Amino acid sequence: MAMISYKYDVSVVVPLYNESESLSELAAWIDRVCRENGLTYEVIMVDDGSSDGSWGVIEQLKAAYPTLHAIHFMRNYGKSAALYCGFEAAQGEVVFTMDADLQDSPDEIPAMRKMVLEEGFDLVSGWKRKRFDPISKRLPSRFFNWTARRVSGIRLHDFNCGLKCYRNGVVKSIEVYGEMHRYIPILAKYAGFTRIGEMEVHHHPRKYGSSKFGVERMVKGYLDLITVTFMSHFGRSPMYFFGSLGTLMFIIGGATTIWIIANKIYKQCYGLQPRAVTDQPLFYLAILAIILGVQLFLAGFIGELINRNSGDRNKYLIDKKI
Q1: pTM for the full model?
Q2: Which fold has domain 8-236?
């Protein structure tokens, strides 16, 4: 099999939103680490519709760092959209993601890259064992990670760590949309990339600005976990889920209705006083089950039609590129 030729040893995808103060320091940090380790690299900064002058800083950085590439969205689409476009543009053999707030350390790049290339991992996720976040963020995060481990079977301590490392083929094979950036390891697993590792990384206190995520991230996180679990199992064939459930409901409702009618006929044949079918609550429950069964089956059928005829869902308005 022919070897794939990559333009760079490392691609670093940096999604950002209003992080103008930290970009110069981050670019210099990545450059220093890669040069010290003899790595060719590119940095792909994806400006998710910033309003604080981040794009102007990126334009200035381009003069100092020729392999810095950038994408600017016309509005704020979210971190998943930024990662998707960054992954699409990445030309490195190994692809890293890290946040732009300087809480993720580029010093981890050589060790994580070694785990991918020499130890055979498809994906290596950072684990911020010691975090400099308030307890109001740490405790919900622990519960969230416990739930994600139970549901996915992936033994990671920190699913939401922004610092991750991938083989290039992984990022080209997964589809990140909505708020699915939290579940990239799960998406990778269901795409067939099962060698998922973890490395303890340093977590630095936030130096500039403030967190862009509020309390609503917990609600979104659990809704997204349900979504990604469903999509991973039934996204390509929704009929398997809706059709199976609908058929089961239809059979239960139909069988119950037949039993009620047969019971009435039996009593009439033997001169017993039958109870009116319409006086039995079970009859209405049976009819409800039949109706729900038909609706679920149709939902699966419509889902299959939509899935077969849908275009690319990941379409974002890119304003400028470098």
Answers
A1: 0.73
A2: Spore Coat Polysaccharide Biosynthesis Protein SpsA; Chain A (3.90.550)
